[in-house]
Structures are given as structure tokens and as C-alpha cells.
Amino acid sequence: MHILTRRLVVPFMVAAFFAVIGTVAFADKASAEPFNQGPAKCSECHKAEAEIWSGTKHAKSFKTVHKADKAKALAKATGNKSMKKNETCVQCHYTLVAKEAGKKAKPKAGPSCESCHGASSDWFAIHNDYGGPSVKADQEDAAHKAGRKAQATAAGMRWPSDRYGIAENCNACHGLANPGVAGDKLAIMLDGGHPANANWEYVEYSQGSIRHQFYPPDMTTNGEMDGAALSRAFVIGQAAKLVSATAAMGNSDSAKYKEFQVARAAAARTALAGVDAAAALLADPTRDNAVALAAAIDGQDLSGAVGGMLPGTYK
After folding, report:
1. Are strands 106-109 and 95-97 parallel, antiparallel or unpaired?
2. pLDDT tens-digit series, residues 264-295
3. Cα–Cα distance, 71 to 35 (Å, whole number)
4. What is the share, in percent, of the chain residues with pLDDT greater than 90?
5. How many CB atoms lie within 10 A of CB 127?
6. Are 1 and 106 within 8 A, CB to CB?
């Protein structure tokens, strides 16, 4: 499973705060390559989210995806007819779990918690520390929470609040543009009939069966986005698609693969054409410009610009 490049801007006060309380406690845990601990680890606390995940195609695919039409042929064409042993297939289709640092990781689940939120070995303890062994989540003070989130991010965690990072991560696999897979392998997959949808759209999928938004103060309700939030998510998803497709165009000499990525980029450009804040991104589709766009539209209602393009149903 790929891990996108870690990026973090830590405010000076947050960094100073952790310098005072001491961050050395976690240093040794970050010395080795981070690894996935598997969905069971996350479900110890996130029971409601785990229950939803267990009913999704992501979870169920672990026992079915290798049985799909052309699965064995595609796997063989990219290196190994067993998807679970194929270095290309495992990047998107499985969660590779290790028992400890340095041990061989094996596929133990389909796409799961860490597929979206990052390998947890380095950030798990940080994420769960609210200020000491006896401090519960609802007792954590604001300064500690801010510092904890910054440290967990630095250790590789991708929070739900990282709207662009989550959309970027989804587009990597769903756009046949995973940076952890060589372009020639992606082209082989597409040429061999691997499913590919140039119109794949982030909101349609993220707010469907996989939605698991259990946030304080109501931790029992799976929250739904309102119209304004949906419009922002749509724009951010299209921004991620545009950046992903633009970068992927040059990854292979395959005409069919380039055509597919050009189609993805064109769809994203059409969707973003009426968004004023997207002008810089459309002129220069870089990640930095996409992140700047996500920040610029925070709190805005863009329903007037993109409302008609929002999906009527979810996957």
C-alpha cells in the first residue's frame, strides 16, 4: 500500500508546546519504516466506523476481488498471477499488515482504515494520548489536542480534516494513478481491461456506503454533509483529480493510458470552470495550487457554481 509524501506545516507555538512537554518519547517509534497494524487495531476504539467498513465493498473485496473476471490475467501480466503476492495489485487492493517493524507485511484485509489514514505504527500511540494515561478524550485541553494532531500528522496520519489529502489519496487508486506503481504497469492494467472510470467522482463515493462521520459531541450519529460542505468536497475532489491526472499523463508511453488521463483531466476542468478560486489551479495544476484552493474555499458555499453537478445518489 502506498503512502503519499508527508507534508506538514507546524505553527511555532504548537512546536514550542511539544518541546516543553517532551516529544522524545515517540522518537524511537519513528526510526523504522512505518507499517500497517490492520483494521482490528483501529476498531478497538472506532467500533461504529469499523462496523460500517465491514459492510463495504472495500472490506468484502478481500475475499472476492481475486475472483473477478480478468483478475488472474491482469495480475500475471503485471508480475504475479496471485493478486495477494503481486506488488502492483497490493498497492490499492489490500491492507498489508505487519506484526512489528522489520517483519514482512502480508495482505490481511481489503482497503481499510490505514489505506486512507496512513500506516499507523508511528502515530497510533500519539493519536490515543489525550494528556496522560488517566485523561479521556473529552477531558483533553485545546493546546494538547492541537499539538497531538500536529505530531500525529508529522508521524504519517492523514486526518479527516485534511480534506485535500483524503481526496488525493482516493484519486490515486480510483484514477489508476497510484504513485507507488510504475506507469508501464498501470498501462498494462488498462490495456488488459482493468476497470477505469474517467468520470469517477469523490463525493459520489465518499458519501455513500463508506461514509463514517462520527464526531463530537454526538458520537452515535453518522453525520451527513450539508449542501455547502458537499459543494466544497466536490471542488476539492475535482482539484485532486486534475492534479492526479496531469501528473499521470507523463508516466507511460501508452496512448490508451494517456487518453484516459487526459479524459480525467478534462472532466475535472469542466467541473471547476465555474469556480473563481480555481483559476490558479486551472492555469497550473500543481498540488500546491490545489491545496491553496482547498484552503481558499474553506467555509464557503459553492452550490451556485457546482450544485448542478453534485451526484443525486451515492455509491
Report:
1. antiparallel
2. 999 999 999 999 999 999 999 999 999 999 99
3. 26
4. 88
5. 20
6. no
256 close to 190: Cβ distance less than 8 angstroms: yes
Rounded CA-CA distance 46/88 in Å is 30
3-state secondary structure of 46: coil
DSSP-assigned states of every residue in 213-224: ---TT-SSS---
Which residues, other chains included, contact 69 with Cβ-Cβ below 8 Å and sequence gap of 6+?
193
Cβ contact 186:257 at 8 Å: yes
Long-range contacts, 224-231 (Cβ 8 Å, 24+)? 227/301, 227/303, 227/307, 228/300, 228/301, 228/302, 228/303, 230/203, 230/303, 230/310, 231/301, 231/302, 231/303, 231/305, 231/306, 231/307, 231/310
SS (HEC) of 110-178: CCCHHHHHCCCCCCHHHHCCCCCCCCCHHHCCHHHHHHHHHHHHHCCCCCCCCHHHHHHHHHHHHCCCC
Q: How far apart are CA 274 and CA 11, in angstroms?
A: 33
Residue owning grid cell 498489508: 96
Q: What pTM was computed for the model?
A: 0.89
Strand runs (DSSP E) across the chain, as ranges? 95-97, 106-109
C-alpha cell at 97: 499488515
> What sign does the CA torsion over 75, 78, 81, 84 have?
negative
What's the Rg (C-alpha) of the chain? Answer: 20
